Known about the structure:
There is one protein chain. The chain is of the alpha+beta class and 312 residues long. The protein has helices at residues 2-13, 17-30, 35-47, 51-67, 72-83, 195-232, 244-279; strands at 88-93, 104-107, 110-112, 120-123, 126-133, 140-146, 152-156, 292-300, 303-311. It folds into three domains: 2-86, Serine Threonine Protein Phosphatase 5, Tetratricopeptide repeat; 88-156, Immunoglobulin-like; 195-279. The chain has seven helices and nine strands; from the N terminus they run αααααβββββββααββ. The strands form three sheets. Strands 3-2-5-6 form a four-stranded antiparallel β-sheet. A hairpin with a 2-residue loop joins strand 8 (292-300) and strand 9 (303-311). The N and C termini lie far apart (78 Å). Residues 160-196 are annotated as: Disordered. InterPro entries: TPR-like_helical_dom_sf.
Amino acid sequence: MLALYQAARQLLDAGRVAEACAVLEQGRTLDPTAINLLLRLGECLARAGRTAGAWNVFSEAAAVARSAGDPRAARAAAIAAALEPRLSRITIDVPAATAAPGLEIRRDGVLIPPAQWGQALPVDPGTHTVEARAPGRRRWSTVRAVPPDGARELVHVPTLEQEPPPHAPSAALPGPRGQAPRLLASAGRSDGDGGGRAQRVIALASGGAGLVGLGLGAAFGLEAIARRDASNRGHCDARSRCDAAGVALREDAQAAGTASTIAFSAGTAALLAAGLLFWTAPPKAAAPPARRAAAAATAGPGAFSLVVGGSY
């Protein structure tokens, strides 16, 4: 933890505030009850202009210190109270009469529970993406730029349009009359590689699937970390006691973590299978000798000869 403190201080001294905050965020993930680290992180976020993030961290530090009987609770609570009038907020308006069944609202990828629809939620100044989706409906999204210093932004979510019915697959276009369809390979011919080539193709396909699995595992892992961090920002205390939004965020984080583990395991297995298939594939067969033919004619007084030869 001391190394993280020193790295963050060096970054702050160099004016690299955003990177310093990211380092302190790592320390917060490692030890969410470190009061001194939370105070330093809150100061860093406030210096970076991320007032909502700073307010959340100072509020969290006050709760942790209060539960531990630490006198620093008063200082953290006072800073959070001073930041509150400067908080910018977004209100997401979802009319109940137009809400589709299964409607989900996300802000910057984080699920907003229905209990918080219509509430003025604190956000950091800058651009934010609000997205709405529901089964059988077209997805809708908008991007809003929120100014600093107590700005208010209202987002109205419209009625989502119905998804169009799936199109039937179109029939293949007929070729010219009297012309048979072309085949990729002529009947009775072999490429001389047999099962080796097919095994290498399967190996490459398995390797591609493995890379996709690893990519999905990384994506789900990052999603789990983001949901866990979001739950710690004012929704859950140090003893993991959460409000409704915190419970939803924790459940989403657990589901994303499980999906990440499954995707990583499947991707690793596919890559191992690909390597085994590729290295055990039979080598390519030697190309058959080319067919050649030759003819030579000689002529002389009263004689003529023709010599024909070839190799098959």
